[in-house]
Amino acid sequence: MITADFEAYLTDDWYGHPITVDALLECEAEAGFEMAVVMPQTKPVPDNDGLLDKTAGHPRLLPCPLMDPRLGEEGIAAMKDYVDRGARGIKLMGAVHNYNVDDPMVIPFVEAARDMGIVVSIHSGRDNCSAERVGRVAEQVPDVPIIMDHMGFPDGFDAALEVCKQCPDVYLGTTILRFHKLWANNPEETVPREVKRAVDELGAERVVFGSNFPEYRPIQVKRAIQRLELGDEAEAQIFGENLGRIYGM
């Protein structure tokens, strides 16, 4: 059984400390995760080249550059170069680059990802990153796996469920614990019930584990999901089998 985390970050400065490849691997291993999709620090000019360099030679790490669709053809050419260097997916984050996720300029990037056989992770949230906007992208470019980060939170969880019901290539990523108030007081009591609802309404095969490391350690998020008591089969799918299928691992 494959175990994998769909979203972890390398950062230069996390409260005064860098998050290195070794630190990331150590925290993933602590939770029993063999693989991790790794993204660069989220900033307007991400260090995608550094991401590819740092993860090179690490078969357990799948680099996922953060792309800016405003760069047009130049950005698509860079994406192709990243894939040639080992990238297995791309991240789109309108909240960082200030664009509507369903803006027409986004579509060529998603089409290029489809043609190159890679995965698209899309940050979801309010306004320009709403779940409905992610759904409109999926409707325009079928047959490309899209992971909706944050499951539409904080306001769009119901919309995210509806998007998944209409778009079979959209998956929900479990990076939602920042929206649970209990987390700040006692992380060992957090129960992300929306994950269970997603499993009940969509099936466990449409949910993928993501820690958002270093915001949370993978083991903390894993324990929170285990408290839902979804059963061994559903946990196996969420904790890696689904991501293994999506990424062709």
Report the sheet with the most strands, covering strand number, pairing sense and barrel closure.
Answer: 6 strands, parallel
- Strand % is 15-25%
Radius of gyration: 17 Å
Topology, number of strands: 10
Which sequence of SSEs, written as H and E, runs from N to C? Answer: EEHEHEEHEHHEHEHEHHEHH
Quickly give the CATH architecture: Alpha-Beta Barrel
Q: Helix- and strand-based class?
A: alpha/beta
Average pLDDT, rounded to a whole number, is 94
Protein model, in words:
Helix 7 runs parallel beside helix 9 (193-202). This protein starts with a strand and ends with a helix. Helix content is 42%, strand content 18%. It is globular. The protein contains eleven helices and ten strands. The strands form two sheets. It has a six-stranded parallel sheet with strand order 5-6-7-8-9-10. The chain has a four-stranded mixed sheet with strand order 2-1-3-4. It has one domain: TIM Barrel (Alpha-Beta Barrel). The chain is of the alpha/beta class. The chain has helices at 21-30, 48-55, 72-84, 94-97, 107-116, 131-140, 157-166, 182-185, 193-202, 218-226, 232-247; strands at 4-14, 17-19, 35-40, 61-63, 66-67, 89-92, 119-123, 146-149, 170-173, 207-208.
